[in-house]
Amino acid sequence: MGRWRLSRRKLLFLCVLCTSLLLFLHLPTSPHHFSLSPSSTLCLSRLHRISWTQSPSPAWSWAKSENCRFRRFSRKHASELLRGAWILAAGDSQARLVVLALLRLLLDPTEVSTVEPDLFRRHSDYHITLPDRGIRVDFIWAPYESNITWLLRDIRHTRHYPDLLILGSGLWHMLHITNPSLYGTALTEIKQEAVSLLEPSGSLHPHMFWLGLPKLVNSKLNTEEKKEKMTGNMLEAYNWEVKWRGMPKGSSGPFMLLDIGLLTRGCGPLCTLDGMHYDGAVYDAAVNIMLNSMLIESQ
């Protein structure tokens, strides 16, 4: 698949969609090549300001802002924005749920019902192409941080860069290794590999996102081992490692943070049945935040 380019049609569409933005989606996002204007930085900081309602089912909306025009993407608008793009997601079940939310945005409900069983085959990869829009979506099952590190090394060695890279891990580490310090060390390796994707001058760099850990509702976790190991204190320690190791851009890292923790806390404990995986509205909000951040960073 060719690299993602803005056609005249897409450029006209994006100008209408966000009249205040001049959009070239592959401007380098590395701090060495590109810096955001104060207004762009302000809008990025407000992207996660979400309001929630619970009746009749969980629903979200952005808090009002005089300076930022955030968009709730329709299928048409998302398809135009992502036309010709290769989207690569890797991680655990949270990443899989984000991919599902993205496909729900790109496909009609009948199509989603046919692809969902394949997407949720236990511990498996998933691949789909949308030929009419030239969109390719790959999900790689990568529950441990080392899986993601090796994936990034492969991307660097082959120089076959995705246009959009969505990564996240930590839940399996918390359950099976239960050591925040080792988790932080593994994150450092991921960060180093991700930064290396931004270094070649003149390259078209992927937009990179890191999925924060969800709020864990301990009383709803479905095994005693999870209740014992995946505590509030442990979650706080793992979240601290993400920030201290400098993963998000706000901490000089390469990733835009999709703060699943903040979104799940906002939606609340009624939004989860198993204390870990949340209602689809949470991941729909995350996808819309992601797409809006791409527009803002391309200003």
TrEMBL record:
Q: Which GO terms describe its molecular function?
A: acetyltransferase activity
Give an example GO cellular component term for this record.
Answer: membrane
Domain of life from the UniProt record:
Eukaryota
Its BP terms in the Gene Ontology are:
xylan biosynthetic process
Indicate where this protein is primarily found. membrane
What subcellular locations does the record give?
Membrane
Keywords for the protein's UniProt record, in alphabetical order: Membrane, Signal, Transmembrane, Transmembrane helix
Could you say which residues form the signal peptide? Answer: 1-31
Q: What is this protein called?
A: Pmr5/Cas1p GDSL/SGNH-like acyl-esterase family protein
